[in-house]
TrEMBL record:
Its main location: cytoplasm. It comes from Marmota monax (Woodchuck). This is Uncharacterized protein. Keywords: Cytoplasm, Leucine-rich repeat, Repeat. InterPro entries: LRRC14/PRAME. GO terms for cellular component: cytoplasm. It is found in: Cytoplasm. The keyword Cytoplasm applies.
Amino acid sequence: LKILAKPTSHTRNVLRLLQLDSVQKVEVHCTWVPSTLAAYAPFLGQMRNLRKLLVSQVHMPAHTYSQEKEWLLSQLTWKFLRMDYLWKFCVDAVLFLKGHLEHVL
């Protein structure tokens, strides 16, 4: 499954139609903010056979409050840690994980 454009309600509708437990690889090739990633985490959680997750261009907006940033990052790391079936997690911008990277590893 490849996501090449910013997610929309259409993207969510398509994901609802798929048999998510049969997806083994997801590639996100567009700019996301952590809140978008968190919003799509329930779909990722339904992908019980997901083996590889590639996420590129995740950026934390400069105007994000530190409390909001901490909450978003804790939610993301918690969700990723629950994906024990995931073999490979690739992200090309780790700045949004600053201070939380050790929890994901």
